[in-house]
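Closing statement on the zinc ion sub-project.
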Amino acid sequence: MSKRDYYEVLGVSKSDDEKAIKKAYRRLAMKYHPDRNPDDEEAAEKFREATEAYDVLTSSDKRAAYDQYGHAGVDGQAGYGGGGFGGGAGGFGDIFGDVFGDIFGGGGGRQHDPNAPQRGSDLRYRLDLNLEEAVHGTTVSIKVPTLVECDSCDGTGSADNSKPVTCSTCGGHGQVRMQQGFFSVQQTCPSCHGRGSEIKNPCRKCHGEGRVQEQKTLSVKIPPGVDTGDRIRLTGEGEAGANGGPAGDLYVQVSVRQHNIFERDGRDLYCEVPVSFVDAALGGELEVPTLDGRVKLKIPAETQTGKLFRLRGKGVKPVRGGAQGDLLCRVLVETPVNLTERQKELLREFQDSMEDTQGHHSPKKNSWFDSVKKFFEEFKN
Ligand SMILES: [Zn+2]
Ligand SMILES: [Zn+2]
């Protein structure tokens, strides 16, 4: 297959400069790029042809060789032809970054314009609170490691306050083209690390970064009612932005420690209250704790273990509004320990007294024995 003349392919003349060639190529590439012409063999071929022409004519060595010897002067320098330009591998932004950068900019803008303002990263801080702090709200002082604008150079990164100069290695692109045969591959500039500019006399405090790592102390107001998993956003308290971009946000992530008396379930609190079996049997008044101090809880006679008593409004007022929750006290009837001989004697006496009126004193036990009896009867049949 005889190749068309490269100048003809791009529709330029032999005297046109690189800028004109670039422009002509861009026009063709826009038209024939495989991403825009899926499954179109003819377009793919036109694109390959234009790319090949572009590559030769924008390289002064190859262009000279081509001008002198025609295709013979440049063919065989690289294995051109096998795949490479299919939708996938390498493709667009990477290989043709500088050609397409300003056309397809948008999403990839950050990569192509290293000097564009960049928003700082968001930071997250895990804050452990005890239950009282979470329920009542508090103000805490937290230390956050963060990048802040360097105060010795006002963020310029320069020791003598001079403006950064365009990087001489990449000419300000932040990327350099590496020639690999006909392909030119974009790489981050090794001199400026993609910034596109250099600081000749870098600030000694921040080494030219314009930002320094610091511990910053923040006073954070925790509203009453927060719970584990709640986040408090502190706008602009995250990492400082680059190139004049805005700072990120700081998210304070609340984690409430376990309490040794109360357990929280949303707006309700639970606690266990041990009672003597005498109090449980005769009824009485217990003193139970709440987050606001002690309150009296009356329990009726014949209270069974495990019974829940609800104290309305003694729970948590939710941070997102709504009624205050309740405190639920679970009564645990306790078996007495360390009994004296006299106490044991009284209990035996008490036990004997129960025998005369069996069937009236242990509702649960009675119904349980009935169930067991029934179970074995069915078992036998
Ligand atoms: Zn550079
Ligand atoms: Zn500095």
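Residues 150, 152-153, 157, 203, 205-206, 210 surround zinc ion (ligand 2) (CB under 6 Å). With this model delivered, the sub-project is considered complete and its resources will be redirected to Aim 3.
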